[in-house]
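pasting for the record
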Amino acid sequence: MATGVYQFSTKTLDGKPLELKDFAGKVLLIVNTASKCGFTPQYDGLQKLHEELGQDGLVIIGFPCNQFGKQEPGDESAIGAFCQKNYGVSFLMSEKVDVNGSEAHPLYQYLTKEAKGILGTSAIKWNFTKFLIRKNGEVYDRYAPTTKPEDLKADIRALMAE
């Protein structure tokens, strides 16, 4: 049986199944995203990480979420068009999900239990909270929205070398 994050699945923006177990042996970066947020320019940094480290085994998955200031109001096709047009996003994007509350996606229920936020809280505080996942599916760490994607390179490379 799949363990860690590999037990979860979702759908892509275009409705195709996305099984996390398909990424066993790779380092995952999971990020809740939004198109109308002050941190939205981080899409650019995420795309650069994808281009630089994707061939070495990094998989980035964005999870659009509208729970913070209603900053992701569009449907899946609008989100995809925005990401492609404005940031050239070619990394994986999930369907829109909730990351907090009773309707939170099961993956996010797991992530927030495994890696607490500031002061030991579990709830996601804002868009672009990042979770770095080891090649075996275990959560390595959680990063605040203010942490820039490029600031994760050393941790990503360390996990790739494990």
